[in-house]
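Re: the 70-residue chain
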Amino acid sequence: MTRKQVSIITGIPDRRVLFYTEQGILKDFNKNTGRGSARHYSEHDVHILNIIKRLSVIGFELKKIKEIIK
């Protein structure tokens, strides 16, 4: 799935999905790198994003969320 599709499914803005990827919480599985390369995400990533969303709503900070996810 693309970042935009993941955003629509989870309700998390696509820039936030990118942020989580850059923070190392999500791992896109695109073998092409560089500017303009589309990132692709799995169903597992969607599941992780839903967990992140729920933990954020109840007040967990990103640092703690990273620990829980790992």
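Helices lie at 3-10, 14-22, 43-57, 62-69.
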